[in-house]
Write a structure and sequence with these properties.
The protein is 44% helix and 20% strand. It is α/β, with parallel strands linked by helices. It has two domains: 292 residues, TIM Barrel; 110 residues, Sulfite Reductase Hemoprotein, domain 1 (2-Layer Sandwich), CATH 3.30.413. Keywords: 4Fe-4S, Iron, Iron-sulfur, Isoprene biosynthesis, Metal-binding, Oxidoreductase.
């Protein structure tokens, strides 16, 4: 049954899942806004580095942060990371990512289990045969005790090979065999759905389960989730499992996620970008937010509308102004979210000449239209359609930022802020 969210977009109804830590409750599914999450790439055993990156991701707007938990040292570090976050007033829920030895880590280091709000379990990496069933059951029992949510996260690169082999054999014997790709898709979906059913048979409530089926190809991901959404009412986590680096990763993630979100499929997303050497991990948070904001599903940070430039804009002034303005908005957004709710939906325009500039600027909450080549060397500023003055001189960027700050405080700030 589809539901309609605040933006008017039809969404597949899924069972809502609350992921909780202290005063923070993040609800996934049930028609709630799509949740943005991310994952650290520090060695979790390095508690200080992992704390700093988790805090940075949370400050950027990641509503859930996942950590690799692969060794006893990493599991013990989770406790320290959680303590440091709480001491800093950062109550973002943490997700533990478990492969191969999660059953041991969760049972042998129970304090780690208690510090995590959600466990990611990959059914392809819990063991083989009856051992897999035992290990899976152990993890579910821990989740029942701690109240943690569970994501059953199936990956194309680590699919249960016994299940895939069985389905391939059945397909070969069928009178109307499917393509190998279709059988692989069925194996991925069945692994997720059957694992969720197994978790429920062990006593984990449906409102504590999230499912995902991740692959690296755009069209295959779309086909997978269309099938998965028809086969389950569980909340769904979206994302390409390896999106890639730079523009390739951004474009591929956007192409896949936008199609599914437009169809009402997906309750939480991660954009799994390969970061450039030395680049901030927060890029994946920003891209996820901008996908949702561009689709008018959520608002996170005021975004700049700017023109591409043409022969009329011989100066790079408007390009630098657009960049500096967006950087300013992103830097101020965390505080504005606290003191000026609603400002995240503010529209800002930086235009490069007088052809479309004044019109676009008037349509924004705040806009500036710079002169182009040979035009009058003044830049009119418009506030909600009305001309509010002109900018001149070498410090136009600072002047414009001051106007934006004043506008936010006069129009969005809470009383007493």
């Amino acid at each position: 049954m589809p539901t309609v969210n605040a933006c008017g977009l039809n969404r597949h109804w899924t069972t809502p899942v609350d992921v909780i830590w202290g005063p923070t409750t993040v609800t996934i599914g049930g028609g709630r806004p799509v949740v943005v999450q991310s994952m650290t790439n520090t060695a979790t055993a390095d508690a200080e580095a992992s704390y700093r990156q988790t805090a940075e991701l949370a400050e950027a707007g990641s509503e859930l942060v996942r950590l690799t938990v692969n060794t006893p040292d990493a599991a013990r570090a989770v406790v320290t990371i959680r303590e440091k976050l709480d001491a800093a007033g950062i109550h973002v829920p943490l997700v533990g990512d478990f492969h191969y030895n999660g059953h041991k880590l969760l049972t042998e280091i129970p304090e780690c289990a208690d510090c995590l709000s959600k466990y990611r379990i990959n059914p392809g990496n819990v063991g083989k045969g009856t051992k897999a069933e035992e290990n899976f059951a152990m993890m579910i029992e821990v989740a029942k005790r701690t109240g943690a949510a569970v994501r059953i996260g199936v990956n194309g690169g680590s699919l249960d090979q016994a299940l895939l082999a069985r389905l391939m054999d059945e397909n070969r014997q069928s009178e109307h065999p499917e393509s190998p790709q279709a059988v692989l898709r069925e194996a991925l979906v069945r692994s997720a759905v059957e694992s969720a059913e197994a978790a429920q048979s062990l006593g984990l409530p449906a409102n504590r389960l999230v499912l995902s089926c991740k692959v690296s190809e755009v069209q295959e991901l779309i086909a997978l989730y269309r099938t998965l959404s028809r086969r389950t009412k569980a909340a769904l986590h979206l994302g390409l499992t390896e999106a890639g680096i730079g523009s390739k990763g951004i474009v591929a993630s956007t192409a896949a996620l936008a199609v599914l979100l437009e169809e009402g499929i997906g309750d939480t997303i991660r954009v799994s970008l390969t970061p450039a050497p030395g680049a901030s991990r927060t890029e994946e948070v920003i891209v996820a937010q901008e996908i949702l904001q561009s689709m008018e599903l959520r608002s996170f940070t005021p975004l700049v509308t700017s023109c591409p430039g043409c022969g009329r804009t011989s100066s790079d002034l408007f390009q630098r102004l657009a960049q500096e303005t967006q950087q300013f908005l992103r830097a101020r957004a965390p505080e504005w979210r606290r003191i000026a709710p609603g400002s995240e939906a503010m529209k800002v325009a930086v235009m490069g000449c007088i052809v479309n500039g004044p019109g676009e600027s008037r349509q924004a909450d705040i806009g500036v239209s710079l002169p182009g080549s040979g035009e009058s060397p003044v830049a009119p500023v418009y506030i909600r359609g009305e001309k509010a003055g002109v900018l001149k001189g070498a410090d136009i960027a600072k002047q414009f930022q001051d106007i934006i700050e004043k506008f936010v405080r006069e129009n969005y700030a809470k009383q007493g802020s």
